Amino acid sequence: MQQVVIATKNKGKAKDFEALFTPLGFEVVTMFEVAPDMEIKETGTTFEENAILKAETLSSALGKLVIADDSGLAVDALGGEPGVYSARYAGDHDDEANIVKVLEKLEGVPEAKRTARFCCALAIAGPNMETFTVFGTCEGVILTEKRGTNGFGYDPIFYVPELGRAMAELTPEEKGAISHRGNAIRKLAEELPNLLK
Ligand SMILES: O=c1nc[nH]c2c1ncn2[C@H]1C[C@H](O)[C@@H](COP(=O)(O)OP(=O)(O)OP(=O)(O)O)O1
Ligand SMILES: [Mg+2]
Hints:
Layout lengths: L1 E5 L4 H11 L4 E5 H4 L12 H16 L3 E10 L19 H11 L9 E11 L6 E11 L15 E3 L4 E2 L5 H7 L1 H16 L2
Parallel strand pairs: 1-2, 1-3
Antiparallel strand pairs: 3-4, 4-5, 5-6, 6-7
The chain binds 2'-deoxyinosine 5'-triphosphate and magnesium ion.
2'-deoxyinosine 5'-triphosphate binds next to strand 3.
C-alpha cells in the first residue's frame, strides 16, 4: 500500500488522518514509526509557519514527501486564544488541563458569545518541490461542560451547530467530513496533481 508520512506525534491527529486517507488507499505513517526520537520545536507565530517547520524538518531528515499539521482552537471571546498555543495553553499537551482553562476563562459568557473555530494548517514538503500550505477551519460554539468521548484535544467542549452534537460525539468519519483537518485535506487533495507533476 502507498504510504503517506505525517510529521506528528499526536495519536488523535493520526486517527483523524487515517479516517481521511485510508479510503483513498494510503497507509498513514507517523513520527512514532519513522522518527520517534526527533523533537521539532514549534517556534513559529502562525499555524502555517509551524506546519512548514515540521514538514520541512522531517522531509529533510527522511528525504521523502511529508505532510505536517499545525492546528488549534481560536475562541472569539478570548481574542483568538489559545490559537497557536493550543497544545501548551495550560500544561504541556495536557488536554484535560487545557479544557479546564478554556471553560474557566469563559465562565459567565453567554452561548451567543461562545463562538469559536478549529484551525488547521497543512504543509507538504518534499525533496523535489516547493513547500505548499493549505488552511482549513470548522466553526462551532464552546460548551459549558464536556460532551462525548471520541476524538482528542478540545473535541469534548466544541459544539458543532450544523450537526447538533459535540465534536467528541462524532465518529472519525463524521468528524472528517466537517472538520478543519478534513477541509484542509480536501483542499490539499485538489492541488496534489499540480504539485507532484
Ligand atoms: O481536531 C481537533 N480536535 C480537538 N483539538 C484539536 C484538534 N486539532 C487540534 N487540536 C488541538 C489539540 C492541541 O492542543 C492543539 C494542536 O497542537 P499541535 O502542535 O498542532 O499538535 P500536537 O503538538 O498535539 O502534535 P504534533 O505537533 O506532533 O502534530 O490543538
Ligand atoms: Mg505540536
